[in-house]
Amino acid sequence: MPENPEEEEQSDKPSGKTLEGKVEIRAASSATLRVRLIQQSPTADPKLVEAARKFAQKLKEKEGDEEERIDRIPEAPLVLPVPQK
Amino acid sequence: MPNSRASTHRDVFVNCPFDADYKQQFDALIFVIYDCGFYPRCALEVVDSGQLRFQKICQLILECSYGIHDLSRIELAPSTQLPRFNMALELGLFLGANLLSENKKACLVMDTEQYRYQRFCSDLSGVDISAHGDDTLRLICVVRDWLRTYLEPSEGIPGGEYVFGRYKQFLSILPGLCEQQHLNPESLIFYEYISFLQGWLEGKGLREEQTS
What we know:
The structure holds 2 protein chains of 2 kinds. Chain A is mostly helical. Chain A is 27% helix and 5% strand. Chain B is an alpha/beta fold. Chain B has a 5-stranded parallel beta sheet with strand order 2-1-3-4-5. Chain B is globular and about 45 Å long. In chain B, helix 1 (23-35) runs parallel beside helix 4, helix 2 (53-63) crosses helix 3 and helix 4 (136-148) crosses helix 5. Chain B has a domain at 11-158: Rossmann fold (3-Layer(aba) Sandwich), CATH 3.40.50.10140. Chain B is built from 6 helices and 6 strands, in the order E-H-E-H-E-H-E-E-H-H-H-E. At the A-B interface, strand 1 and helix 2 of A face helix 5, helix 6 and strand 6 of B. Strand 1 of chain A pairs antiparallel with strand 6 (208-211) of chain B.
């Protein structure tokens, strides 16, 4: 048992439990609360989910946050660099 | 094994073809549903030879609060010269279930063109149909905009073009992920695809929210 029960709730590991309904969270002080909303498909395979999660995390660590590099104009033509003479 | 019986209040029944010609749109459709915070459900998730396909579909419809129906492939099959009516049948089942159910369902009906249905299913007159023009980006935008209306105002999700960008990112990493798991990306079955999709979204932290 952890000394502080809150430590257990802050774990990044998915619990595997399905939660339904609304959750109200209030900060008692100026502490920062991080709430992670994890989608849980009723048909997903937990082993493959975990494999993909680790794969994505490794890529993210290796390449940084790619969100900023997303191509927002999917049909835009590629612009080739002009060769330097 | 995936638990196909456990449903959530954000389950979306997906009514579309499952053939190779529609695979690109199907993968994109599943992606955008997931990326918007909903759960796609379709007959592909149930592998039970002892259960009639019709029963599977009825059960799924009963379990889902939302339905997305793509009628764009109701056309003559080259081999038989007969139209495919499965999508129309399942749309009819969904509309009937909604009519008779106490818990109302919401549905999005899509087609290639907005008014093409009038030539093969005029009883749908009055139903708003969204056109995607067989374009993957438009399909993602249509589905994203529709699902957005069922989210809480505070649940912000990115626009369709951005979701499309994420979809392309996911497709780019999928071969490597499949290789790692000794799977062929061309022949992934439904629950493998959504398992990878779920894990990828989690790993990228796309469902992380910070409040203070």
